[in-house]
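Tokens as discussed.
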């Protein structure tokens, strides 16, 4: 079994940081990331279309597709497991045009394994709602993370880990 080397990255992300990442790389993220789901993305895109400011400057930032659960007593945040990214697809181009660096479509897409909500929430050192509190878990949270694990799925070099693995398994099964 091959052990992957972990790449440590800090936010906000720069183009130089993203250039060295390749599909399949294991990373740990340090710094601030933001949360958003489909209702939040829709509101941010409407704000852009109306010429309004966004609740945070997306330049160099990462958006984590999650709707965290309420924090139990003594905890910073509740469960923080990733949700399906495809629902955000129609909204992402507007955010990427404004400098978002960690998501998809022209920037690096980081994947996190579903079912790891407890592990991921343990990497969150601080959590605060910064916008759309009325959306409950779909509000925008500003998370300070330390050692937040992810895998590079899509890189800036045109590689797609999901497609590469599907092709590999097809070849292996074919014989």
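Sequence:
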């Amino acid at each position: 079994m091959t052990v992957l080397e972990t790449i440590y990255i800090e936010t906000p992300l720069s183009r130089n940081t993203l250039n060295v990442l390749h599909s399949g790389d294991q990373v740990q993220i340090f710094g601030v990331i933001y949360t958003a789901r489909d209702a939040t993305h829709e509101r941010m895109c409407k704000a852009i279309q109306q010429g309004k400011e966004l609740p945070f400057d997306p330049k160099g930032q990462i958006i984590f597709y999650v709707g965290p659960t309420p924090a139990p007593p003594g905890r910073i945040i509740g469960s923080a497991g990733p949700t399906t990214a495809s629902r955000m697809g129609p909204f992402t181009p507007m955010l990427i045009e404004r400098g978002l660096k960690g998501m998809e479509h022209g920037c690096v897409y980081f994947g996190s394994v579903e079912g790891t909500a407890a592990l991921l929430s343990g990497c969150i050192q601080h959590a605060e709602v910064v916008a759309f509190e009325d959306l409950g878990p779909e509000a925008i949270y500003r998370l300070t993370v330390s050692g937040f694990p992810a895998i590079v799925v899509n890189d800036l070099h045109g590689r797609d880990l999901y497609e590469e693995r599907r092709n590999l398994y097809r070849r292996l099964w074919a014989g």
